Amino acid sequence: SKRNKVYDLFLATWNTLSLFRSGALKQVKSELLKYNIAIAALQEIRWKGDGIMDSGDFTLCYSGGKYNHFRTGFLINKKYKDAIMGFEAIDERMCTLRVRGRFNNTTILNVHAPTEEKEDEIKDEFYEKISKIYDKIPKNDTKVVLGDWNAKIGKEDEYKTTIGDHSLHTESNNNGIRAIDFAMSKYMTNKST
After folding, report:
1. What confidence tier does 193 reach under pLDDT thresholds 50, 70, 90?
2. % residues pLDDT > 70 (the chain)
3. What is the secondary structure of the chain as a DSSP string?
4. Mean pLDDT throughout 102-113?
5. 89, 92, 109, 139: which sits with the fewest CB atoms below 10 Å from its CB?
């Protein structure tokens, strides 16, 4: 039955810079099909409001507000639509998607962190909120956090268990340290920068 179908999910994240441009959504969908991506976490959608809409071979779930800046969402290939258990539009910088699995479900948290030059207070609020959202995810779910962290993760020895050995950068910037601290506090590892 469809309810018990097991999926191999190929996930991606993409800061689109804007789906408000003519043809932008079509281009994103084309790339996702080319690489057989099941679910893509999108940042900077720049559409007003929250919503769920079908668009060709995909369903777009998006989270936002009343202005055309930021916004996060998920583009889900329709082949995987039956596995979707729920979407939560949190705010312009965060949303979640829950996906059914064989042995346990997966919750994907999509984030768009403030840029490096933003005030510490704004960054502190963002990380407090993401921590609260993460902690509300059902305990037995597999947790995946995707998005644009606006961070540089370095190769510092003291963080190797969380960040591994490979990075484009030698030293982490302030946002990188914040992202590493978040991952360490949740016993997560950073898989890509």
Report:
1. low
2. 90
3. -GGG------EEEEE-S-S-STTHHHHHHHHHHHTT-SEEEEE----SS-EEEEETTEEEEEE--SSSS--EEEEEEGGGGGGEEEEEEEETTEEEEEE--SSS-EEEEEEEPPPTTS-HHHHHHHHHHHHHHHHHS-TTSEEEEEEE--------GGGHHHH-S--S-SS--HHHHHHHHHHHHTT------
4. 94
5. 139
